Amino acid sequence: MDYAASREEALARIAQAQDLDALEKLRVEFLGKQGSISGLLKTLGGMSPEERQSTGPQIHALREAVSDALAARKEALEGAALDAQLARETIDLSLPAPDMPRGTIHPVSQVMDELAEIFADLGFAVATGPEIEDDWHNFTALNIPESHPARAMHDTFYFPDKDAEGRAMLLRTHTSPVQIRAMLQQGAPIRIIAPGRVYRSDSDATHTPMFHQVEGLVIDKGITLGHLKWTLETFLKAFFEREDIVLRLRPSYFPFTEPSVEVDVGFAIVNGKRVLGGSGDAPGHGWMELLGSGMVNRKVIEAGGLDPDQWQGFAFGVGVDRLAMLKYGMDDLRAFFDGDVRWLQHYGFSPLDVPTLSAGVGVRP
Ligand code: PHE
């Protein structure tokens, strides 16, 4: 057999293979299990030692040459394929970036995140409660009995049916029922904030039937009004990112706190706009009512299953939407809940701007 001729023919055909498929077919034809060169190798076994000694090296050399040629051709074809692809596919860096989905964080969510960050630093956990409440948690346990005028004042949305225990069901009118739930669930001591939706039948530029509050509750031993004042001051300075926030505490009344304290914050008028900071008593300044608070009423601590001789605490409740309006300058609350993407583009926050105390809790997008 003329191995030299077989080799020339094989190498010529390999050199002419136009693509990787054709080349693979040749590899199978020569070196596959049933391939012609594999067949030649198998004949070695049946040869006499002398014959094998002269023929063996030739067959092996043929196999080597074909295998090398296949590899070389493969590399060449792959290189050519890559070159062609590179020539075909170009990137024009001057083109505008593709349209990305651009959702924004709603200011209410942003403010809730800011509150969670600020209060986490003070050792408060975030608690939640149901928006569909019963009148025991929403009123009775908070020292607002059936006949109490505060029930009527709350413009409550009631459900037509009572729950299994015969309690009237309603949409919670404030986040204060979470105070009761936290005490019953976790006992004392407690440090929580409870942000969430609340509902009252009320609607104008500054009132919507659904709005947001954040409740604060501390239960521990030896808690005083001083702790309340320090906590609110620290919180509001961090939230409004101003050291000159000045608070005024006024005696007030809530059934669930005793004593109760209404908290005003001082503002100045700058270019016709109210800007928080400084004493409200200074010329050109004023006070604006911000939140309700007080020492938790003994009856409420009892309703929460705790001994009021052992445990004391303070609580506060503040409108989240109102905090957002004051900090970020919106003046119509109704726009918060219209779902208008233009409003959200303008007032929303980047999902990447997570509020942190170190970077500032309210970076503009
Ligand atoms: N729940 C009260 C409200 O909705 C606010 C408040 C909470 C007052 C806690 C005192 C203590 O107006």
Describe the model.
It is a single chain. The chain is an alpha+beta fold. The protein has 2 domains: 3-88; 107-347, 2-Layer Sandwich (BirA Bifunctional Protein, domain 2). It is built from 12 helices and 11 strands. The strands form 2 sheets. Strands 1, 5, 6, 7, 8, 9, 10 and 11 form an 8-stranded mixed sheet that branches. Strands 2-4-3 form a 3-stranded antiparallel sheet. Strand 7 (247-254) and strand 8 form a beta hairpin. The protein binds phenylalanine (PHE).
Q: Distance N terminus to C terminus?
A: 82 Å
- How helical, in percent, are the residues? 40-55%
Beta content comes to 15-25%
Tally of extended strands? 11
Bound molecules: phenylalanine
Element order, helices and strands?
HHHHHEEHHEEHEEHEEEEHEHH
Q: What is the overall shape?
A: elongated
Radius of gyration: 39 Å
- The total number of structural domains is 2
Question: Looking at the chains present, what oligomeric state does this protein adopt?
Answer: single chain
Residue runs with pLDDT of under 50 for 5 or more positions: none
Name given to the CATH homologous superfamily of the largest domain: Bira Bifunctional Protein, Domain 2
CATH class of the largest domain: Alpha Beta
Mean pLDDT: 92
Name the structural class: alpha+beta
Separate helix tally: 12
Largest sheet: 8 strands, mixed
CATH fold label of the largest domain: BirA Bifunctional Protein, domain 2
